[in-house]
Amino acid sequence: MNRHSNETAKVKICGIRDLEIARICREEGADYVGLNFVPSSPRKIELAEARKIVEFYRSQENSPEIVLLFYKNSLEEMKTVISSLDHDFIQWVWDDTSVTPSIRETLFRKRQICSYRVSAPITNEDLQSVVPGELLILDSYSKGAGGGTGETFNWEYVQGIERNFLLAGGLTPSNVAQAIRSVRPFGVDVASGVESSPGIKDAQKVIQFIRNAKSAL
Q: In 3D, which of 181, 193, 101 has the Cα closest to residue 139?
């Protein structure tokens, strides 16, 4: 099991782009926030806006940990972002060929979160080759997208996984509690499921998602 029955699930809100949502995430007790730098994503944040969010969190106690998300970025883009922003984690996608082992070893010096897309039942053995990181994200597979598709996958596919992972893919305020009780993950990760339109976070959905996740034992 990833989580003891008396522990609340960790919550990651991914793809935030403004200070209002950043404040809500902190006030409601989100554990991680993702700043998305994926070139093709509707959640891509500009460096100047990201810097405001980072500065806000670093000035406040009990702020979420900051995750920088990359998928099919150029080396120069990743260098610029990583050197410009104080952060806790770097998130990358397992099948992203632009993230080479040398980049992970030399550029990704902070803690890492690897996102692994699930399209069939997986076992602990299947994940042995996935670079050991502090956390895994197990997400639904969608060709050409690194995540944030809003599609769920069959949760039974990951029932036996023992590593700490964040469950992602199609989670919403209305199904997150059920997902936590069913899968018992270390935590949950949401992007499109708390949006009013692609890339635009809905404050009430963010609040309800965090509260529903935190109250699901």
A: 193
Tell me which residue of 173, 196, 176 sits closest to 187, measured CA to CA.
Answer: 176
- The pLDDT tens digits for 58-68 are 999 999 999 99
pLDDT at 147: 47
State the residue for tokens 């502090």.
134
8 A C-beta contact, residue 111 and residue 77: no
The residue with tokens 């996935």 is 130
Quickly tell me which residue has 């809500």 as its tokens: 24
Residues pairing with 66 in the sheet: 33
- Which residue in 71, 23, 9 sits closest to 43, CA to CA? 71
Predicted confidence (pLDDT) per residue in 118-147, tens digit: 988 999 988 888 866 678 999 886 655 544
pTM of the model: 0.92
Asked if 119 contacts 102 with a C-beta cutoff of 8 angstroms, the reply is: no
> How big is the chain, counted in residues?
217
Q: Which residue has the tokens 């500009």?
A: 46
Q: Is the pLDDT of residue 16 over 80?
A: yes
Residue in this structure with the two tokens 């994503």, named with its chain if needed: 41
- CA-closest candidate to residue 185, choices 209, 162, 208, 157: 162
